[in-house]
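Re: the 95-residue chain
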Amino acid sequence: MKLVPLFDKVVLEKEKMEETTKSGIVLPGQDDKEKPGQAVVVAVGPGGVVDGKDITMQVKKGQHVLFSRYSGTEVELEGKKYTVVKQSDILAIVE
C-alpha cells in the first residue's frame, strides 16, 4: 500500500530525537511535547486551489522538516507510523 496525499497535505515519518550524548550520557526529557517534531517527508500532495487560494508546494520528498507537535493526523500503515499534516503546519526545512 502507498499513501498518496491530496491537495496541500504532506506525509511525514517522524525521526527519533537524540536522547544520548556521543559519550553515552542519557539526556532525559529530550522528547519534550512542547518542542517541534522532526521528520522526513515521505510524500507530498499536488497543491492546487484550497479554500479559494492557490497553494504551491514548497517541500519535497526526502527533505527533513520541523513541524508543530500537535498538528496533523497520525496513521499506521503496514506497521509504520506516519503523520499527515497540512503544508502550513511545517515550520522549517532542515538542511
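DSSP finds no helices and eight strands in the chain.
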